[in-house]
Design brief:
The chain is of the alpha/beta class and 440 residues long. It is built from 16 helices and 15 strands.
Length: 440
């Protein structure tokens, strides 16, 4: 545990305030209050990793949860249903903007607090870790007068940060920007932001119909969740508007397939879709303690296969007093697809998924795996971090001329790294002599 609180002497109000402030100072993105049998564990998520923070005895647990629900304007008498709330204010000189969620579980009530950090959105697009090539394509995409641009990725991969950064870039006096969000995560001066409210029938689709009568230049939709919203967004982009939105997909190809699954007609999608930005977040190496090491045979094989580079050394995590196990912060891994005429024609011609995949990845797109490995070469993150993020299925067609399988190489790289950390060398002769070894 990181912290110990004297619950007998310290008021609950001060305990909650200290948890919120300390978690924010440590760079946490979430605070988890997990009820267990006999006690409660508080955990914080730093750089994407959950860690134990403090232990709360059962006799204090209910008071702690009640205080959180009170300041987040939730119903303190209701513990049988999930609830959502928010906390906004200043504590000990730190501006806090928090989203609170409660969920009834078998041992009580679990509460999660999301700490919203707008510093990256305010810093500008050039601070979002785009490679020079991807940044150039992004600027070209967002400067078109109409079309739809989608930012995709799983929950917590920085989609909102990227979208808000784009809005900041486009926010000019001569431009009318309207957003529809659930919830509004960041107030931006000069932008008209609409909060959906399902209780009164104000959903994304309803709001979008009204927004189109408000003479907008740019429309931002918080998330495309259903077929109706997708169709309205696509039609809005065709009628002369630039539309920004997010979708929960893994990569560019999956995004196109998801829109087709949402019954967006392919000829409309071919005309409307301007580009897709897919992203994931990897832990960033601490610049003060990162250390160089030689690459393994398996790592060199992957670098050669994916990047066509001979990489002899890469950086690894070490650990010091100023970081968390050798990592400090996170770095974005991105795939930016600019839709070209060949892809538009293929969509209109209703080509197969396999043909579409070839067209997408034979264009000038840098895949997530390629961008991630480039950032490993640059010393921004580790090889192991990229392996945890990038699904092997996304790179199923990557192999060297001898048929060396990527999945087998990845597994062997992990084993070799573990062996090195334990000061012994595994026997890999059988694998070295058989590049076509069965996939693990």
């Amino acid at each position: 545990m990181i912290r110990t609180f004297d619950f007998q002497k310290m008021p609950i109000v001060d305990v909650v305030n200290e948890i919120l402030v300390d978690a924010s100072k440590r760079g946490a993105s979430d605070i988890h209050f997990d009820p267990r049998e006999g006690h409660m564990i508080i955990r914080i998520r730093v750089d994407g990793q959950l860690m134990d923070y403090a232990d709360v005895p059962n006799e204090i647990r209910d008071y702690l949860i009640t205080r959180i629900k009170t300041i987040s304007k939730m119903n303190i008498t209701e513990s049988r249903l999930p609830q959502d709330g928010s906390i906004k204010g200043t504590l000990q000189g730190i501006n806090l903007d928090l989203r609170v969620s409660s969920l009834p579980v078998n041992n009580g009530e679990k509460v999660v607090i999301r700490i919203l950090d707008y510093s990256m959105s305010l810093a500008g697009l050039e601070q979002l870790d785009f490679s020079q090539k991807n940044y150039k394509k992004l600027i070209e995409m967002i400067n078109v007068p109409n079309g739809i641009i989608l930012v995709t990725g799983a929950t917590g991969t920085g989609k909102s940060t990227t979208v808000y950064s784009i809005l900041q870039y486009l926010n000019k006096t001569e431009t009318n920007i309207i957003t529809v969000e659930d919830p509004i995560e960041m107030d931006i001066e000069g932008i008209n932001q609409v909060q959906t409210n399902s209780k009164i029938g104000l959903d994304f689709a309803t709001a979008l119909r009204s927004i189109l009568r408000q003479d907008p230049n740019i429309i931002m939709i918080g998330e495309i969740r259903d077929s109706e919203t997708a169709k309205i967004a696509v039609r809005a982009s065709i009628t002369g508007h630039l539309v920004l939105s997010t979708v929960h997909t893994n990569n560019s190809l999956n995004t196109i397939e998801r829109l087709i699954d949402m019954e967006v007609q392919k000829y409309l999608l071919a005309s409307a879709l301007e580009g897709v930005i897919s992203q994931k977040l990897a832990r960033r190496l601490c610049p003060k303690c990162k250390r160089k090491r030689p690459t393994t045979d398996y790592e060199r094989t992957i670098f050669k296969s994916v990047l066509n580079k001979d990489v002899e050394e890469i950086y690894d995590n070490e650990g010091c007093e100023e970081c968390n196990d050798g990592f400090h912060g996170r770095i974005a891994i991105q795939e930016v697809l600019r839709i070209n005429q060949r892809i538009r024609d293929a969509l209109s011609d209703n080509v197969s998924k396999e043909e579409l995949r070839k067209l997408v990845y034979s264009s000038d797109v840098t895949t997530l795996l390629q961008d991630g490995l480039e950032k490993v070469v640059n010393g921004d993150t580790t090889f192991g971090e990229i392996l945890k993020l990038i699904e092997l299925d996304d790179s199923e067609n990557i192999s060297d001329n001898d048929g060396f399988d990527l999945k087998q190489a990845v597994n062997m790289s992990i084993e070799a790294n573990n062996a090195r950390m334990n000061n012994y060398k595994p026997d890999t002769s059988s694998i070295n002599n058989n590049p076509n070894i069965e996939v693990l």
